[in-house]
Write a structure and sequence with these properties.
By secondary structure, the chain is mainly alpha-helical. It has two domains: about 1-100, no CATH class; about 110-195, Tetratricopeptide repeat domain (Serine Threonine Protein Phosphatase 5, Tetratricopeptide repeat, Alpha Horseshoe). The chain is built from ten helices and no strands. The protein has helices at about 1-20, 30-50, 55-70, 75-85, 95-105, 110-125, 130-145, 145-160, 165-180, 185-190. The chain is elongated, with a radius of gyration of 21 Å. The termini are far apart.
């Protein structure tokens, strides 16, 4: 029942946004903000269909909303679309499209896309393993405050993985991860005695 109410609200928001734009009645007195309202409503619908425990049709609807918005340039939609291709939600599994949309969203600054791209380059499962690219994308996400990426970068410096072993740099990243409440940071701090550096 709750899902139906949310869908109805999202549809009403979408219709209001479209009607306001079509009639040039700008509630916000700003055409860009009005268009953002339409995009948010569409993404909201995509999220509802994606997160709903429902049928394959629901997943296809979510996929279609994400695809429309991704093709229009929405970064969040690009990331969501890459995940749907990877999990075969509403579409067939397609790793080339996973990488394509993930790179697009990572290049546009999407934090989770950057972390995931770092992991793909680290694992080498669906794209060739590339330590430099893995480090690069993890560091991009870490610089945005992602605790998981900060721990990964810190561990790389602790153990000399893909980079020289530099405990002073490890200390910096693990300390940031701790400040971001990452659960592993304190253990790594103590294990490598990073307070010494």
């Amino acid at each position: 029942m709750k899902t139906i109410i949310i869908i109805v609200i999202a549809i009403i928001l979408l219709k209001i946004s479209i009607t306001n734009t079509q009639n040039n009645v700008l509630v916000t007195n700003n055409i860009e903000e009005s268009n953002q309202g339409i995009i948010k409503a569409k993404l909201f619908l995509g999220d509802i269909y994606d997160n709903k425990e429902g049928t394959e049709k629901d997943k296809k609807d979510a996929f279609n909303w994400y695809k429309k918005e991704a093709e229009k340039g929405n970064t969040k939609a690009k990331f969501s679309l890459s995940m749907m291709y990877g999990m075969a939600f509403g579409t067939l599994k397609d790793y080339k499209k996973v990488v394509y949309w993930l790179k697009k969203s990572a290049e546009e600054g999407h934090l989770k896309a950057q972390r995931n791209l770092g992991a793909l380059y680290n694992n080498g499962d669906i794209i060739p393993k590339d330590p430099k690219k893995s480090f690069y994308w993890y560091k991009k996400a870490a610089n945005q405050g992602d605790g998981t990426s900060q721990v990964i970068i810190g561990k790389m410096y602790c153990e000399g993985i893909y980079v020289d072993k530099i405990l002073k740099k490890a200390k910096k990243w693990i300390q940031k991860a701790y400040e971001n409440n990452h659960p592993e940071a304190k253990n790594i701090w103590n294990e490598y005695e990073l307070w010494k550096y």
